[in-house]
Sequence to fold (152 residues):
Amino acid sequence: MTFKEKVQTMTSGQIIMAMVTALEKPSIRINMNSYGHYSTVKTWFGLSKKNVCFGCAATNTVCQVAGIKFTAENISVGITRAQAVQTDDSFLYGFEVAIDSLRKGDLPQYNYIAKSNGFAEIEDNGMPLPYLETIYTREQLDTFVTLAQGQQ
Fold:
C-alpha cells in the first residue's frame, strides 16, 4: 500500500493518534519551526561530527505512518521526502500542512486540506485544542487523544 493510500484509508482518529504517537516517540528531533532539516553537530569533546535530523509534528507523523526515519540525505527538501515515502510531493505537502494545522489546533484548516486531498476530516467537538510548540506537555497530547477517541 502506498503512503497516499494508507493515509486515505486511515480514520480521523487514526491520523490524530499517529501524530500523538509520533510526538511521544519521535523518529527525529522535534523542532516545530521546521518541516525537516538537519544540522551537523560535534559529538563528545568535538572529536567527531554527526548529522542530526530535525522535524516538526508533521515530519514525525509522516515517519510514523510510513514506517521510516528520514536521513540527512532526504529530509531537507519536500521532493526527497516524498521520494523516501514513495508518494507525490503535492500529496505529501498537503498532509504535512494538514498535520501542522492540527498541531496548532486549527481544525477548519486541517479539514479543508484533508477534504482537498481525500483523507479523513476531523469532527469538531467544540473542545479547545492546544497549540503545540517544540516543547509540549503530556496534558496537551492527552487533549488530542481525547479528540481521537471521540471520532467515528
Observations:
- Residues 3-124 form one domain.
- The two ends are 23 Å apart (CA to CA).
- The beta strands are 29-30, 37-42, 49-55.
- The chain is about 50% helix and 10% strand.
